[in-house]
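Worked example 2:
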Amino acid sequence: MGNRILIVDDAAFMRMMIKDILTKNGYEVVGEAQDGVQAVEKYNELKPDLVTMDITMPEKDGITALKEILADDAQARIIMCSAMGQQAMVIDAIQAGAKDFIVKPFQADRVIEAIQKALS
């Protein structure tokens, strides 16, 4: 284990929830970002093994940030996080190169399953 993960979400509460799930399951959270601009900067700075990326954020949305990160690093592993009813955005994200998506409110086992699958 010990995979390094960057959490991106504009809601501090959501970042805290994901961080809690990840640390309890042996993952290392190396950074957090609250919008797509920070996500791209932190990705380039930290080079995490995986990113959990919210779709809807201020400044720059998750899909735009996903495309920018993948343009710099084709090997980047990114899992999108979305609220219910954002299927069209999720499809866009998967087509843009996201490895998987998880739906809010998060279920710990689904989060871990998606991360294990993306990292394998």
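Residues 12-24 form the longest helix (13 residues). The two ends are 11 Å apart (CA to CA).
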